[in-house]
Specification:
Elements: H1 3-10, H2 27-46, H3 49-66, H4 71-94, H5 98-115, H6 118-134, H7 138-149, H8 157-173, H9 177-190, H10 203-206, H11 210-221, H12 225-236, H13 244-260, H14 264-281, H15 284-296, H16 304-318
Helix pairs in contact: 2-3, 2-4, 3-4, 4-5, 4-6, 5-6, 6-7, 6-8, 7-8, 8-9, 8-11, 9-11, 11-12, 12-13, 13-14, 13-15, 14-15, 14-16, 15-16
Length: 319
């Protein structure tokens, strides 16, 4: 990583030195929690690039207050600070910068440990496992999720659901379909018990068909084209058009499933729409999914449908 890039990534997290003593109003905790929910909604609508700087700077403000706050106010700010660091890490991950994402996931884990909050510690481990998933390290994903689930009796249902579904992604990377289904099914038994008021990690409540999204993604990695395609059709029926970034990612995976099921024409038809959304949102995740589609479509590279896909993907590269 170049020095200038490193400084821009770390500046908000590694401010040096003490800050002047001041009174820290406990109401700041609620203020930052409300802001966080707005950032989650904005991420769904417009993608990572415009948000990274905003959320990182707010994290820096929280960090300055943590250094002088006391008692429950300090612990509350640590908890919300961990959520902000996790969001910055996710935004970098969605933008395709896994180095910066790993840095911020590490910051999340540090603050979670300082907060002594077992749910945040589990959440931070799942965050690290998400990066391992993008790196294709199935065993690393499983290790981290199993570490989170070591505290299963103390975890809120939401954190258990997150750990189980992420472990399923690790199982899909190691080719273990039986474990994928077992873990997703186990998560489905408890997802209905998610009723906490924690401001972070609410994708299982916010995302339509959350667990079937995970199952379909895992099936796609396992090369189960027809099964994955059927699930993506079911999932996409419930995803609002306003969730453009997530919808685009799901459709790219649906296209790959169609190609794996020997339907290249449908794959290209879906990819046309995805390419437009990928350019407009700047989502590296979407581009990565389209590269996966390109690999699966290699048997048709010299056929007319393969040339059509090449033209579609050229617009994404140019964008």
């Amino acid at each position: 990583m170049r020095r200038r890039t490193l400084i821009s990534v770390t500046a908000a997290a590694l401010a040096v030195g003490p800050v002047p003593h001041r009174h820290v109003d406990p109401a700041l905790i609620g203020y930052f929690e409300q802001q966080l929910e707005g950032h989650y909604r904005a991420d769904m609508l417009m993608g990572p690039h415009d948000l990274i700087g905003i959320v990182a700077e707010q994290y820096a403000v929280i960090d300055r207050h943590v250094r002088v706050a006391r008692g429950e106010t300090r612990r509350g700010l640590l908890r919300v600070g961990a959520a902000y660091a996790a969001l910055v890490g996710w935004l970098y991950q969605d933008a395709g910068d896994l180095g910066a994402a790993s840095f911020w996931r590490g910051i999340t884990q540090e603050i979670a440990m300082r907060s002594r909050d077992v749910n945040l510690i589990g959440y931070s481990l799942v965050n690290l496992a998400q990066v391992r998933t993008d790196l294709g390290d199935g065993h690393g994903v499983i290790d981290l999720c199993e570490a989170a689930l070591d505290y299963r009796r103390e975890l809120a249902p939401k954190v258990a659901v997150m750990s189980l579904q992420q472990q399923a992604h690790g199982a899909s990377l190691t080719g273990d379909r039986t474990a994928v289904d077992r873990l997703i099914d186990e998560a489905s038994y408890i997802v209905g018990r998610v009723d906490d008021d924690l401001p972070w990690g609410n994708a299982c409540r916010r995302t339509p068909g959350y667990l079937e999204v995970q199952r379909a993604t895992c099936y796609g990695r396992l090369g189960l084209g027809r099964e994955a395609g059927d699930l993506w059709t079911q999932v996409l029926d419930g995803v609002p058009t306003t969730a453009r970034r997530d919808r685009g990612v799901y459709m790219a995976r649906q296209a790959t499933a169609a190609a794996a099921a020997q339907d290249p024409e449908q794959a290209v038809e879906i990819a046309r729409e995805v390419a437009t959304v990928a350019v407009e949102t700047g989502s590296a995740r979407m581009r990565r999914e389209l590269r996966t589609l390109e690999q699966v479509m290699r048997p048709w590279h010299d056929a007319p449908v393969g040339r059509d896909l090449t033209e579609v993907l050229a617009t994404v590269v140019e964008g």
